[in-house]
Each structure stands twice: as C-alpha cells, then as structure tokens.
Amino acid sequence: MSGALLAWGALLRRDLREFSRSRSQLGSSLLLPLMLLAILGTGVSSGLDPQKVRDSDYTSYLAPGLIAMTALFSSTFAGASFYQDRDSGILKVLLTSPHSQRSIMFGKALGSVAIGSIQATIVLLLAIALPTIDLQWQYGVAQGVLLAVGAVLLMNVMLAGIAQAFASRIATMHGFHLLMNLVLFPLLFFSGAFFPLVDLPWWLRLLGAVNPVTYPVDLLHLAIYAESGSGYYGLAIDLPVLAVLAVLMFALGVRSGAFRRNLR
After folding, report:
1. Count of structural domains within the chain
2. Measured between alpha carbons, how far is 212 from 29 in angstroms, rounded to an integer?
3. CA separation, residue 239 to residues 59, 134, 138, 149, 226 (Å)
4. What is the CA radius of gyration of the chain?
5. Within 13 Å and on the Cβ side, how many CA atoms surround 144?
6. Over the chain, what is the mean pLDDT?
7. Domain assignment of residue 251, given as a range
8. Which of 25-34, 38-47, 53-62, 114-123 has the lowest mean pLDDT?
9. Distance of CA 182 to CAs 24, 50, 122, 178, 186, Å?
10. Taking the model in full, what pTM does it have?
C-alpha cells in the first residue's frame, strides 16, 4: 500500500508541476469565466431583464454555473495528458514499473482532480471577492464555502473518471477533444448552469434530471446563491447522488484496461 501511495503522489506532483508551467492553460481557464461574468452576465441582466432570476441579477445567478464550467473543462481536458505521456513514451516507462496498472491510472486521475479543483476554487474565491456578485449564503458563509468546495471536489472526481475512461478508449487526442466537446457542452447547457430548469418544458426538465452535471450545479446554487431551497433538488438529493456518481465514474476510469491498445 505504501508503494502505491508513493506512486500516486509522484504522478500527482508531476501533473501539477506540468500544469504550473503551462501559463496559457491556467490563464485561459480563468479568463473565460471572468469574461462570461462580465459580458454575458451584465448583458443579460441589463438587456433581457430575466424574470426567473432573483432581482433580475443574472450575473450572480451565473457565478455558480461558471464555477462548475471551470471544473468541467479543466478536469476533463487535463485527462488529455494521457496522450502526451503515450506519445512521448513515458506511459510505457510507467507500465514497466512494479506498480499495478490500476495504480498508474489512479495517479493519472488524481492529477485531473487536483487541477480541476484548484481552478474551480480560484473562480469561487473570485466570485466571493467581486462586489458586483450578490451571494446569499443561506446556510452561512463557512458552511456554504464547505458545501461549494465539496461540490467542486466531487464533481472533479466524477469528471476525471469520465475523461480517463474516454481517453483509454480513444486512439487520438484529436478524437478525444472532439468527443469530449460533443459530450460536455450538452451536459453543461442542460444542468441549470446558464438558466433555471424549473419552468422549462417537461422533456428539458427530464434531460436535466438525468444529467450528472445538474447535481453539482444545483448544490453550488444552494450553497452560495439561493435564498431558499425552492426550485432546487435540495441537499438531500444533490449530495448522495453526486457522491455515488463520483465513486462510480472514478472507479470506471481507474479500472479501464483498454488503454494498452492505445500505446501503439
């Protein structure tokens, strides 16, 4: 067990070191949600005056969704490091080590979880600090922050598993990015991140209910934005559903054994 822990730690440190050196990745992942807050949030609040959002303040409503969006893209596309390791030959070296295939996959997935969680947490802190964003903290600030960080962490665990499972079965990075974009954008748009789901047609609400990203978005809204639980699934549903999905998807990614065929 101690050997596996050392391997996981080494892989995690390696991915974090590579991430810290990629200033373009860090900058772009943080700049996009801030641009959406400034442009989309202000534009909709001022121009469309949405009645389904508290006080027509769409910028504040958008903040939890952009935290989820940052986690969504950061953690899943961090899984693309699989292809860099494969093409450079590092993955073959890792596979010849005494550690099991599952330990290698676990360590790789940890890097995606850490990168996605760090970037989403930074956006959360920025949302808290910006005076133009009106957060309600219905459970109190301390508990709200803990719930939000928990939602971010569980979401990244779930998404890292999904990305690792896809990466182990798709031969090229180009194909991986195309498929992940095809999957991620519908998940994001039908999660409640950009508009409330409660008053949508029944078939759109059904899509939202079966969408795994809906539950961390719902939890983030409840933790930092909503005044009450009205119109939301609630903590009693969000937390257990998200926890189960995170465990199942992460296990799926770690247990995936098809990546050996992608080494060629």
Report:
1. 1
2. 22
3. 25, 24, 17, 12, 16
4. 19
5. 20
6. 78
7. 2-263
8. 38-47
9. 23, 28, 26, 6, 7
10. 0.80
Distance of CA 185 to the CA centre of its chain: 12
Distance CA 204, CA 10 (A): 44
Report the alpha-carbon distance of residue 219 to residue 238 in Å, rounded: 6
Which segments within the chain are labelled E, that is strand? none
Cα–Cα distance measured from residue 187 to residue 76, given in angstroms and rounded to the nearest whole number: 13
Residue 246: both structure tokens together = 């995170």
The yes-or-no verdict on residue 27 having pLDDT over 60 is no
**Residue indicated by tokens 């290698």:** 104
Measured CA to CA, the distance from residue 21 to residue 213 in angstroms comes to 29
Pull the structure tokens for residue 258.
């098809």
Measured CA to CA, the distance from residue 153 to residue 157 in angstroms comes to 6
Give the residue from 101, 137, 161, 165 showing the smallest Cα distance to 222.
137
Mean pLDDT in residue range 59-70: 90
pLDDT of residue 135: 93
Q: Which is nearest to 109 in space by CA: 256, 230, 254?
A: 254
pLDDT computed for residue 51 by the predictor: 58
- What are 6-16's pLDDT values in tens digits? 666 666 676 66
The two tokens of residue 7 are 């391997």
| Confidence category of residue 21, pLDDT binned at 50, 70, 90 | low
Position 125 scores a pLDDT of 93
72 to 59, 62, 152, 225, 249: CA distances (angstroms):
19, 15, 9, 19, 14
